[in-house]
């Protein structure tokens, strides 16, 4: 079980980044959440199988077609026991 916090910066708000992230997370079978931050970034908490978590982080480096990702910062996080992946805020 892996858990990470991911901050994605660039043109990532107003381009359906959260929706696409939720779809990709569900496809990969990971749990957690995604939300927009006031600074224009998108923040995720992701947990699950290490390979699946890594795959979602890799996806974040490009995001959906209309996004322009500039930077992805990843740090380890404590698992919360999330049972689904949701969009918040």
TrEMBL record:
Q: What class of enzyme is it?
A: hydrolase
The record's annotation in InterPro entries points to:
Acylphosphatase, Acylphosphatase-like_dom, Acylphosphatase-like_dom_sf, Acylphosphatase_CS
Report the EC code(s) recorded for this entry: 3.6.1.7
Q: Which Gene3D superfamilies match?
A: 3.30.70.100
Q: Which PROSITE patterns match?
A: ACYLPHOSPHATASE_1, ACYLPHOSPHATASE_2, ACYLPHOSPHATASE_3
What keywords appear on the UniProt entry?
Hydrolase
Q: Does the keyword Oxidoreductase apply?
A: no
Q: For this protein, what reaction is catalysed?
A: an acyl phosphate + H2O = a carboxylate + phosphate + H(+)
Task: Provide the protein name.
Answer: Acylphosphatase
- Write down the species: Nocardioides exalbidus
């Amino acid at each position: 079980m892996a858990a990470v916090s991911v901050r994605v910066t660039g043109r990532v708000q107003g381009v359906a980044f959260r929706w696409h992230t939720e779809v990709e997370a569900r496809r990969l079978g990971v749990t957690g959440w995604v939300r927009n931050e006031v600074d224009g970034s998108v923040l995720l908490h992701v947990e699950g199988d290490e390979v699946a978590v890594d795959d979602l982080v890799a996806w974040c480096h490009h995001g959906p077609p209309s996004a322009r990702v500039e930077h992805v910062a990843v740090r380890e996080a404590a698992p919360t026991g999330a049972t689904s992946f949701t969009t918040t805020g």
